[in-house]
Structures are given as C-alpha cells and as structure tokens.
Amino acid sequence: MRLRPLSFLSIAVCAGILTAAGCSGQAQPAEFIDTTLTSKTPYQPRQDASTYSSVPDGYQIVMLQHVARHGSRGLSSADDDDLMMQLWQQAESEDALTALGRELQPALDAMLRVHQQLGYGEISTLGRQEHAQMASRILQRHGALFNPQAAASRPIFVTHSGRSRAAQSGEAFVEQLVAEQPHLAERIQPAYPSPQTVYFHKAEGSEGYDDYRDNDPRLVAAMAQIEGGDRTQRVAEEAMKRLFNDDFVARLQAGDYSFSAQADDEDQINNALDALFALHGLYVIAPNLAADEEIDMTPFLLPEHASWLAYVDDADSFYGRGSGFVGEDITYRGADALFLEMFAQIDELQQAPEDAPLASLRFTHAQVTMPIATWLQLADTELPVEPDMLYTYETNPWRAAIVSPMSANVQWEIFAAETDSELLVRMLHNEAEVAFPTACTAVDDGSYFYQYSEIKRCLTEIHHLDLG
Fold first, then answer.
1. In which band, very low, low, confident or very high, does the pLDDT at 354 lie, cut at 50, 70 and 90?
2. Residues 324, 331: Cα–Cα separation, whole Å
3. pLDDT tier, 3 (very low <50, low <70, confident <90, very high otherwise)
4. How confident is the model at residue 11 (pLDDT cuts 50, 70, 90)?
5. Residue where one domain finishes, among candidates 321, 347, 374
6. How would residue 151 be classed by pLDDT, with cut points 50, 70 and 90?
7. Most buried pick, 3, 128, 378, 398, via CB within 10 A?
8. How many CB atoms lie within 10 A of CB 113?
9. Does a structural domain hold residue 326?
10. Do residues 354 and 321 touch, judged by C-beta distance below 8 A?
11. Alpha-carbon gap, residue 204 to 265, rounded angstroms
12. Rounded to whole angstroms, how far apart are CA atoms 286 and 298?
C-alpha cells in the first residue's frame, strides 16, 4: 500500500541522512512520507531554526512554555516479545518454521536482551539523546533568556506525568541545560508529577474518558470494522505464513494455540491477528532501541503489511486521542487544565514578572500530546468524522507519526518589548513554526507572531474556558 502525498511535512535525504526537514532547513512538502512507525517514530525537528521568522523589532524572549512527550523508549511491558518468543518456540518444536521464520529468533533474543538491560517502559539511550539535543537547541536559540544576568531570580519549573519515562526525559533535558549553562542549576526547581495538567486522561475525574475509550458504540464499531475487517484478517494470515507453514497458521487461526504473557496473563496470542499485532509491536519499537541494540525487524513485515497496520494504529489514535467524532471533544477536553496553567503563568509574567517562571518544562505521553495538538487545532488535526463515516487515509490527514512522534513537543515562546506592554507569542510544533487556530488573528498576515491577549481571547472562546 502506497501512502498518498501529504502536505504538512517533508522527509528528505540530505548528505545521506534521513531528516524531517528539507535540505534547505525549511519544513517543505514531500511527495511521499513514510509514516509506518506511527507514534513510535523517533524524533526529528521539523524545521531548522535558522529559517524561523525574524522576531519583531524591539522584542526579546522572556518566557518559554514547553510541553514534550517522553523520548524513544522500549516496549511498555513484557508482552509482545515474550508472546512472539512463545509462538516461535511452539512452531520450532513442530518444525513449522519457514526459512524467514528461522531468522526471527536472533531478533527476538536481542529484543529480550535489550529489555533486560533497559527495563520495560523505560526511556532508551536514543530517547535521552532526543531530549538532550532539544535542550541544546533551545539554548542555542534563546541564549538571552538563559543568560546569567537575565532575570536572575526567576525559577524554571519541571513537571511530568509521574511515569518513569516521562521523568527520565525531563532529567535528560535538564541535565543538558545544566551541562551547558551550569548557573541554571540554582534556578531549576525539583521536578514533580502533575497528572491534572500532563496526564489528564489518567488523573482523577477522567472516568468519562475511560468510558468513552472502552464503551462508546461509535468508537467500538469503527475499530471493530477496521481491526476485524477482511483486509486486516488477510494481512494477518499472509504475514504469519511468511514465518510459519500453512498447517501451523491454520491451527493458529482455528484457536488450537493459546499463549499468555508471563508478566500479565491477560496479554495473549490466540489467533493470527493477535500474533500480527505482537509482531507489529516489535517492528515499530525496534528503531527506538537503535542506540542500545540494533534490531532489524523490517524483513518480517512486508511494506504493504506495515502500511496497513500503520493505518489501523492511526485509526486507534484518531478516535481515542485525536480528532474523533464531529461535535465530540472528550478526546482533548482534559487539556483545558494545562492551558489554564499556561495562561496563569503568562499572566503572572505581566503582573509580577520577577516571580513568574523563566521556563515551564513539562514531560508527558502521546495520550497528552495528541489531545494538545487537537485542542490547538494544529494543521491536519482539525478534521473529525461523522459517526457514519470511517476514518481512512484517503479522506483524513491525521497521522500519529506527524502529530506525536517520540519526543513530540509544543513550545510557546513569549516575547516582550520595553516600548509595548503587549506580549507576543510564537508557537512551535516539533520545532517548526505553526499557526494558531484560524479564529486567532496574527499581528500581520502570514506572521507566526500573535498578541498574547489575542491568543487568550480566541482560545478561551473556542473552548469556552472559565478563567475565574
């Protein structure tokens, strides 16, 4: 399956390196984009800072609001690797492996080995690098903000979801800040969990969202149609027959085998589709581990199979954390608390600038960065579907690899001028300049700079926020 052309990101090969920005440094359109790793895509900044718009005359940055997903990681739990190894061992004991299937064992051994070293659900070496490099780029862009003489008393806040990989991402980010600017150590406040702002779908009061994810008849029907459809079943059978002989796959499909993960007996392989999803879980996570262990899973899924599974995964994130259904905001409503906090901190900058944070650094998960992007109506997140329409690649631009790859981030840069009491805001998404919703008016046509009062007005009106 060949992905259709998209308009919101370029993937270019410059000097032999795959990058997420064109060779000029601009975020430009591309003919084809490989989005088959979906939300497990390792991070690349979308734009070179040297191509950003010039800051209006007289303005300088005075605050940074930063929200980022955790970096590249290993498997979240001991399931896909364990289950595929059990399945492989069963096939091996029956002499039911194909030539390709026999080649799977070293990859499975490597997957189990690297997780013994990293731990499940933990950030990988690549994930630490992603956040350290992001911190370094911020320092390069905003030396004036972090200058030792600038606002010496203002703190830097660090919050996270409470999960270890989010906290580890924050640690990697902060360590790089201090390594390059040691004086920042006394400004950086101890990191603390803030579920209400950066893990809202797991925080107290999220029961309505949980019910939507588990029981909403529209969502359940859509995913049943996609996951249980003929195309998905055919891909499962074809993919398994590349690894195991026909008789073994037939018995797998018939339910003759059942495998349960040792860590959680609710994680199981009972048929070819279960096995396909476990194999795909290993396929998409392998690039996240590249700096710890090179594991090539690409031989074990044909490109057309990987593309279809990417669509299935994108559909799940679209309905569960993204645009969803027309007239429904439950997937991103929880982000209200985060933006109310951001407004409060920027308001404090206007009212008591010596006490306002210099930067607020937040580290979270795709369950938050996807709703954030949708809340902000970022390009290609603002197209929900009618309940009687199915999300498809042909009709909808949502792609998790673009909206929320590993280390996905949204940054609000706040600027002030001595001659103007009005603050300006510029927004970056994955380090590319992006527009606020069309209901918000920029300072000039085509500009990425907005008056803060305008941003606060339009976002408050769009989401009916109560500012107290």
1. confident
2. 7
3. very low
4. very low
5. 321
6. low
7. 398
8. 14
9. no
10. no
11. 27
12. 9
Number of domains in the chain: 2
By residue count, the chain amounts to: 468
CB-based contact 180:308 (threshold 8 Å) = no
Residue 257 carries which side chain, given as an amino acid letter? Answer: Y
Task: Say what the pLDDT of residue 65 is.
Answer: 98
Residue 350: what pLDDT? Answer: 93
- Enter the tokens of residue 219: 């969502």
- Report the relative pairing of strands 420-429 and 432-434 from DSSP bridges: antiparallel
CB-hemisphere CA count at 13 Å for 39? 23
CATH of residue 45: 3.40.50.1240
34 pLDDT higher than 90: no
Shared domain check, 170 and 226: no
Determine the Cα–Cα distance for residues 240 and 235; give it in Å rounded to an integer: 8
pLDDT-based confidence at residue 205 (cuts at 50, 70, 90): confident
Residue 415, both tokens: 């600027």
Contacts of 147 (CB under 8 A, 6+ apart): none
| Cα distance between residue 467 and residue 38, in whole Å | 36
Residue bearing tokens 């037939």 = 250
Question: Residue 468 CA to chain centroid, in angstroms?
Answer: 31
Distance, in Å, from the CA atom of 141 to the CA atom of 127, rounded to the nearest integer, reads 21
Q: How confident is the model at residue 468 (pLDDT cuts 50, 70, 90)?
A: confident
Q: Which among 300, 377, 361 has a CA at the least distance from the CA of 108?
A: 300
- The DSSP letter of residue 389 is S
How far apart are the C-alpha atoms of 78 and 332, rounded to whole Å?
A: 29
Q: Is residue 165 domain-shared with residue 65, that is, in the same domain?
A: yes
DSSP 348-400: HHHH-TTTS-SEEEEEE-HHHHHHHHHHTT-TTS---B-TTS---TTT----H
Nearest CA to 281 out of 86, 79, 439 is that of 79
Containing domain of residue 230, as a range?
A: 80-122+209-321
Angle between helices 272-285 and 230-243 (to 10 degrees): 80
Residue 91 and residue 183 in one domain: no
Residue 6 in this model has a pLDDT that exceeds 60: no
DSSP conformation letters of 153-164: T--EEEEE-SSH
Whether 225 and 313 map to the same domain: the answer is: yes
Structure confidence by residue, pLDDT tens digits, 317-328: 999 999 999 999
pTM: 0.92
Shared-domain flag, residues 190 and 218: no
